[in-house]
# Entry
Amino acid sequence: ATITTLTASRSAIVRFRDGIMTGGSDEARQAWIDRILTAQSTMALHAFSSDGSDTASSAAMVSASQQLSNNLLNSISLAPSETITMVSETATMPVTVSNGTPFSVKVNISSITDSSEIATSRRTSITVPAHSEAQATFRLRAATSSSATATITLEDRSGIAFGQPQQTAISCILKISDMTGFIIIGAAVALGL
# Structure
C-alpha cells in the first residue's frame, strides 16, 4: 500500500509537468518541478528508512507525499458557478479556471448535463496565466422548459480528469420564439378552417 501510494503521488506530479504546465522557459519549469519531485523523493525515502517500529513516522511521510501531489493538482481549480436561467433555446455558461502556480497551464474543461432536454457543448481548452484566472464559455441548448445540473470537470491535455468537479444548476423557462409562434398560429388557423 505504501509503494502504491508513493508511486501514485509521484505519477501525479509527473502528469502535472507533462500534461498541464506550459508557461515559462523550459529550464525554469524543469527546475521548479524538479524541486517538487526531490521533495517527494525525500519523503518516500524517509517512509522506508524507519526500522519498522516507527510506523507513525512512515505513515506521516506517505501522507505528506500524497498531500504534496494533491496540493499541486488542486492549485488549478474551477471557481464556483451561479445558477443559470435560460429564457431562450440557446444560452452561454461561463466557467472560470484559477491557476495558483508560477507557470501558465493549459487544460481541458469538460461539461455534461444530467438531462436530455438541456445540452451543453462537451469540451473546450483553456490557457490560464501564472497566478491568474481565465474564463471559458460553454454553449447551452434547450429543447423545452426544464431544469438540469451541469457537471464541469478539469482534465489534463490527455483527457484525464483531476481536481474537484463543480456543479452548476440550469433552469430553462422557454419562451416561444417568433418563428415557432408563427408556425403555431398558422397551424391553429389551418385547423380552425
About this structure: Residues 26-48 form the longest helix (23 residues). The radius of gyration is 24 Å.
